[in-house]
Design a protein that fits this description.
- By secondary structure, the protein is of the alpha+beta class.
- It has a single domain, classed as Cyclic Phosphodiesterase, Chain: A (Alpha-Beta Complex), CATH 3.90.1140.10.
- About 25% of the residues lie in helices and about 35% in strands.
- It contains three helices and ten strands.
- Bound molecules: adenosine-5'-triphosphate and magnesium ion (MG).
- Adenosine-5'-triphosphate binds next to strand 1, strand 3 and strand 9.
- The site of adenosine-5'-triphosphate has 10 residues, from strand 1, strand 3 and strand 9.
Length: about 180
């Protein structure tokens, strides 16, 4: 039995976006309690491949390349939400551009074609901010935050007790947006 690696495609915030996101996450955490995600772990998952054989990481990269040159886009993280069962509090978008949904769909299609099993969950773009919140999200402050996506990444999730740890394995640029 070979080693397995837990991988997913994601948008990772650039420096200024990360700084604003981390600042606002800390404000939310002040109101919600629970465990604040560390700044370096803040991300938006596009397509989760889960635990795959180590040798399949290269196939995931090939699949990403198959999506071709998709356009970059901007979107607003303009609301807070909560997955009650998973006990996570997140920032999400009330309206997201087709280009974001198209990118997630293209990655799902290309990886499925390469034999990866993708969950049939509907895509709901979100950034997890807090785990195990004590208070519900309406009490937390949130100002809309613009995110300009110019690339996407393949990330490995390294399981460690209590803390999430992610490592970027590869990145692909998105085209300059047309409009
Ligand atoms: P942990 O599970 O160790 O508490 P985590 O959820 O951050 O931490 P992973 O489970 O490796 O780490 O997940 C990595 C990313 O993929 C996270 O953004 C997570 O929300 C997302 N994810 C995990 N499982 C799924 C799934 N079945 N479908 C879609 N996205 C998923
Ligand atoms: Mg998880």
């Amino acid at each position: 039995m070979g080693a397995r690696r837990r991988i997913f495609f994601a948008l990772w915030p650039d420096g200024p976006t990360l700084e604003r996101l981390a600042n606002q996450a800390a404000l939310v955490h002040g109101a919600s309690g629970g465990r604040l995600m560390r700044a370096e772990t803040l991300h938006l998952t596009l397509c989760f491949l889960g635990d795959v054989e180590a040798a399949r990481v290269a196939d995931a990269c090939d699949a990403a390349a198959q999506t071709g040159s998709l356009p970059g886009f901007g979107f607003d993280l303009d609301q807070l939400g909560c997955f009650e069962r998973a006990r996570v509090l997140w920032a999400g978008s009330s309206h997201w551009p087709d280009a974001l949904a198209d990118l997630a769909a293209a990655l799902a299609a290309a990886t499925e074609k390469a034999g990866f099993r993708i969950e049939a969950r509907p895509f709901l773009p979100h950034v997890t901010l807090v785990r195990d919140p004590v208070a519900p999200p309406p009490e937390a402050p949130w100002s809309p935050l613009r995110w300009e996506a110019r690339e996407f990444v393949l990330v490995e999730s390294i399981r460690r007790p209590a803390v999430a740890h992610y490592e970027t394995l590869a990145r692909w640029p998105l085209r300059a947006p047309t409009a």
